Known about the structure:
Elements: H1 2-19, H2 23-48, H3 52-80
Helix pairs in contact: 2-3
Amino acid sequence: xxxxxxxxxxxxxxxxxxxxxxxxxxxxxxxxxxxxxxxxxxxxxxxxxxxxxxxxxxxxxxxxxxxxxxxxxxxxxxxxxx
Length: 82
């Protein structure tokens, strides 16, 4: 029963924290989450690649996707402050 109470409490705190988030911050978080998911997919493909060159290219692409997602998310938040 204690575990359920802790889980409910954690969910409630998360919901309250989300309420204080601006729409731009929420959008930025979604952008980063989507970029992370895409980058993870590229890394998974790299792990399954049979060719070292392909593996390296996929890992580089994953890194670029992550960095791009972070940059776009930062721009969304920065532009909302103006």
